[in-house]
Amino acid sequence: MAGGLRDLREDEARRLFEEKVFERGARYFEQGRVMMPFIYGDSIMAECRGTLPENYHVRVDLRGGRLVASCTCPYAFGYCKHIAAVLYGWLKNPGAYRDLGQSESLLKKMDKDSLVEIVMDMIKYDPDVFYVVNLRLLPRAEVKGFVEREMRAIFSREYVDYLNVREMVKKLDIFREYSSDVFRSGDLAAAMDALVPVIEAVLENYTSLDDADGLMRNFFATAMDLFGDVAAAYRLDGERRGFLSRALEWYLEAEWGLEQAIGDFLVRQAGRLKEQKFLLNLAELKMSDYKRSFITMGPAYSEEYEYVEERLERLEALRAKLSTLADKK
Fold it and tell me: Is residue 102 part of a domain?
C-alpha cells in the first residue's frame, strides 16, 4: 500500500483473502458481528462474534506498506472471515471505528491523579491490564525478566484444556502487542526482550495444552511473523543471522506441529533476507552433528535413536525447500 489505513481501497483488501472468505466477512459485518472497533494510528482493533460464546479478537496493522493481521479464531488457511469483516467494516463505515488518537489527546490533558484513577478502574474491570501497566512502567532492563516470570505463571499448570487455551492466548497476545508497539517505536531490543520469552514458553509447554481449536498454533504463527519483522529490521548481517540460528534451534525443539510453522517461517525469512546459503550451511552442520551422534548412541529404535532420526528428517525437508528456493534465485 502506498498510503495509510485511511487510504485503503477495497480491491487492496480483497487481495488478502480468498473470494469466498471475503464475501463471508462482508456478510458478518452486515449482520452486526463486528463489535468495539477502534483505530489507532495505523492499527485497527475489534472483536467479531463467531460461533463460540466468546468473541474473537482481531487486529490489523500496517507495517512498512503491507497489511499484517491476526485473529484468535482457529482458522489456519490464511486470513479468516473475521479479519475480512473488520476490514470490510472499515471500508464501508469508518465512522463507526472510534479513534483512540482522540482519546489520547484528552488523556494528555488530564492531571496525574485522574489518570491513576482511570488506570486502576481498568485493572479492576480487566485484571489482564496489569500486564500492560507493568510493561509500560518497568525500567527497560527489567522487561525481559518480568516477561519470563509471567510466562512461568501463565504456563504453571501441568495440563490446560481447550476451553482455557483461549484465555491463555488472550494473555499472551498482550505481550505480543506490546512487542509490536515498541518495535514500531524503533526499540528493536525491547521488542525482542518481550517477544522471545513468549515464543520459547509456547514451545516448551505446547505439549501440555489441548489446542484442538488451533488457537495457540495460530497465535504462535503471528508471534513468529513479528519475530521475523523485528529481526529483518536489524542492520548487521551477524545480528540477523543470529536470529535465524535461534529460529533453527526452535525448529528442532518444536513438537506437535509447531515445527511446521517454524519451518515455513525459516524458508520465508531466508528468502526475505537473501540468506538461503547461510541457512543451508547451518542446516547441514546440524545434520552432521546428529549423524555423528549415532556413533555413541544406544540400540536402533530406542527413544533417543528415533528422536535423532526424526530431527534429521526435519533438517532434510528444510534443506530441500531451501535448495529449491536458492535454485529459483
Answer: yes
Distant-in-sequence, close-in-space partners of 177: CB < 8 Å, separation ≥ 6: 59
Asked whether the beta carbons of 138 and 185 are under 8 A apart, the reply is no
| Residues 6+ positions from 89 with CB-CB distance below 8 Å | 29, 34, 37, 46, 96, 97
Query: How far is Cα 21 from Cα 226, in angstroms, rounded to an integer?
Result: 24
Amino acid, res. 29:
F
The answer to whether residue 41 is domain-embedded is yes
pLDDT digits (tens, 9 = 90+) for 268-301: 999 999 999 999 999 999 999 988 887 777 666 6
Give the chain's mean pLDDT.
88
**Structural domain boundaries, residue 21:** 1-108
Q: Which of 147, 248, 250 is nearest to 191 (CA)?
A: 147
Question: Can you read off the three cell numbers belonging to residue 319?
Answer: 534443506
pTM for the full predicted model? 0.74
The answer to whether the CB of 255 falls within 8 A of the CB of 206 is yes
The 10s digit of each residue's pLDDT in 5-37 is 888 889 989 999 999 999 999 999 999 999 999
Decide if 59 is inside a domain.
yes
Q: Give me the number of domains the chain comprises.
A: 1
266 located within any domain: no
Cell of 260: 511446521
Within the chain, strands assigned E span: 34-40, 43-48, 56-63, 66-71, 98-99
CA distance 197 to 127: 21
Would you tell me how many other CB atoms lie within 10 Å of the CB of residue 249?
Answer: 13
